[in-house]
Amino acid sequence: MNAIIITAAGGPDVLQIASRQDPSAGEYQVLIEVRAAGINRPDVLQRKGYYPAPPGASVDIPGLEVSGVIVALGSAVTRWEIGDKVCALIPGGGYAELVLADADVCLPIPSGLSFAEAAALPETIYTVYDNVFRRGGLKQGEHLLVHGGSGGIGSTAIQLAKASGAFVSTTAGNSDKCAYCKSLGADIVVDYKRQDFLSILRDQKVNVVLDSIGGDYFEKNIDLLMPDGRLVYINAVNGKNVAVDLMKVMQKRIVITGSTLRARDVTFKAQLTREIGAFVWPLIGASFKPQVYREFKLEDAAAAHEFMETGNFLGKLVLTI
């Protein structure tokens, strides 16, 4: 099979196409002929050498989500059949013509979606569902603040929160991105390059914050949150070390939490898959639509990474085969 490999830690040019041996399905795995693979920030971090693959995952083929057709089954797999069209969350190896996935971490491609749209679903939906609804406990009628609403995670969080009956505020970096967030259903959008989100939202009753920024956003998030608020971290691009006013945390009874998904075990991901299949999958095509901004061919992965690092896009980027 052909695959995109990371030849060394570095810029987009270190991504090169190479020939690799076709993988074989283990007892509880399916072999997927990949038609599309989502591109995510962790892929960029892995390429730069900052985010090593977990044990058992491909160390030099990036890619955390794919869509395609099942072409082989492990001996213990009974849920799927050869020819089924699925999308899957995987720990790595998605930038390839073939990839293995645990059978319990696959979902059927929703009716009416292209392979590219389906490939844009798993990583963001799993991340948002686990962090906003499970860890953050967002409920109908509560107020969610999402930082970075125009990206893959943000666009997913806005749509799913609105579908659950929440009020949604978000931050974005320019007028086009702000308009895009509004089009997805965000109630309040703050252009963080021109406005201070703390000043704009100070009188709002924010219950949950989903933050990937960190740094000086931390104290502002604490100030905004209502008593019994939940502050959920999924990244810290502006700094992981922050000063904490513990008295504010205690007085407001704020829960500070966060998670990463890639290294979680299959048992956890399988349970998450079942919940997402039951609660999120019925929304797709109605209350939720995958946001694919641009498609690139597999062999153009380096150009796709270069484009991703510009930040000049809305939603998701996808590789297609």
UniProtKB/TrEMBL annotation:
The keyword Oxidoreductase applies. Pfam families: ADH_N (PF08240), ADH_zinc_N (PF00107). Keywords: NADP, Oxidoreductase. Gene3D superfamilies: Medium-chain alcohol dehydrogenases, catalytic domain, NAD(P)-binding Rossmann-like Domain. Residues 10-319 form the Enoyl reductase (ER) domain. GO terms for molecular function: NADPH binding; oxidoreductase activity, acting on NAD(P)H; zinc ion binding. The keyword NADP applies. InterPro entries: ADH-like_C, ADH-like_N, ER, GroES-like_sf, NAD(P)-bd_dom_sf, Quin_OxRdtase/zeta-crystal_CS, Quinone_OxRdtase_PIG3. PROSITE patterns: QOR_ZETA_CRYSTAL. It comes from the Bacteria. PANTHER family: OS02G0805600 PROTEIN, QUINONE OXIDOREDUCTASE PIG3-RELATED. NCBIfam families: quinone_pig3 (TIGR02824). This is NAD(P)H quinone oxidoreductase, PIG3 family. It comes from Sphingobacterium deserti.
